[in-house]
Design goal:
Rossmann fold, globular, 305 residues, disordered C terminus, four-stranded antiparallel β-sheet, 33% helix, six-stranded mixed β-sheet, Alpha-Beta Plaits, alpha/beta
């Protein structure tokens, strides 16, 4: 059995001379939560569409569960596209069962599976309403149920948390964790770095259609070193940005994050801060995925890993 749920090797795609994805290679481990990151226009959605054969690659190969990506293999994927695909005038329950039947789930079995999902995502009282009568967040949950109802081995979710309120986001995070515990492979394409950092085992960042970094989240963060100071204090900290070795100070109200230059003396920054401020917290930490994302995109990225 292959250890990889999805493998792309040298995949490229162009539209009218514009290269959307260029020589992209990446591997999604089986049973992992994998984050596909990148700014708008980076090629994330094009990549997902090629995996699902919505678009065909111009070159390269795609494998699913260790075999060439045939339709039979793709049927083992639940795909939630960024542009939602449910029918707005059709009753929620009817169309969810309809989509499950398209994936080979008999109606009686689909009905049995559907009720727990409706209850868990708070849609039981709305199951006999037309989709366009639901809020945007509820429609998002209905789309997710359509994605998982045939019990796929792999889930590909393009911006799955858009349109959800904070309570809905927490519910969906719990669902993602539960799916991972059940051995499902979850691929998340999202701009919500905090969610990706909490939920994903590994990531790939693409920019201008090319991979600029990938690997386990812990390795990606440690690769960039402990170059950030978290500092909480009372007093006027305006001078911090001018200290030797300080590249940037981000003010979050209750604390600041200080990005240090390579080789900067963190203890020297602490001594200077303590001499002029009442310091309540000082911690040197690895950069967040958000900071790494911004650095890679604004600097043009690094060589592909």
């Amino acid at each position: 059995m292959s250890e990889e749920a999805i493998r792309l090797s040298g995949v490229s795609k162009a539209f009218s001379g514009h290269v959307a994805v260029e020589d992209l290679s990446l591997a999604v481990p089986r049973g992992a939560a994998f984050g596909l990151l990148g700014p708008n226009g980076a090629g994330k959605t094009t990549t997902l569409r090629m995996i699902m054969n919505v678009l065909g690659p111009d070159s390269g190969t795609i494998e699913i569960l260790g075999q060439p990506a045939t339709q039979e293999r793709r049927d083992r994927i639940g795909y939630m596209p960024e542009e939602r695909g449910l029918y707005p005038r059709m009753v929620v329950e009817e169309q969810l069962l309809f989509f499950a039947e398209l994936k080979g789930v008999p109606r009686k079995e689909g009905t049995r599976r559907l009720q727990p999902w409706l209850e868990r995502l708070g849609l039981m009282d709305w199951r006999r309403r037309r989709l366009n009568e639901l809020s945007k967040g509820m429609q998002q949950k209905a789309q997710f149920i359509a994605t998982v109802l045939h019990d796929p081995d792999i889930l590909i979710l393009d911006e799955p948390l858009s349109g959800l309120d904070p309570v809905g986001v927490n519910v969906m995070r719990d669902v993602f964790v539960d799916l991972r515990r059940r051995g499902k492979t979850v691929v998340l394409s999202s701009h919500q770095m905090e969610t990706v950092e909490r939920l994903c085992d590994a990531i790939a960042l693409i920019h201008h259609g090319r991979k600029v970094l990938d690997g386990p989240v812990s390795e990606v963060r440690s690769r960039h070193g402990k170059n950030t100071i978290v500092l909480s204090y009372e007093g006027d900290g305006a001078f911090l940005a001018g200290l030797p070795g300080v590249l940037k100070v981000s003010d979050f109200g209750r604390y600041v994050e200080i990005k240090m230059a390579e080789g900067a003396d963190a203890q020297g920054i602490l001594r200077e801060a303590a001499s002029r401020l009442r310091v309540s917290r000082f911690e040197v930490v690895e950069p967040s995925l958000h900071d790494i994302f911004v650095e890679q995109v604004t600097s043009g990225g690094e060589a592909a890993a």
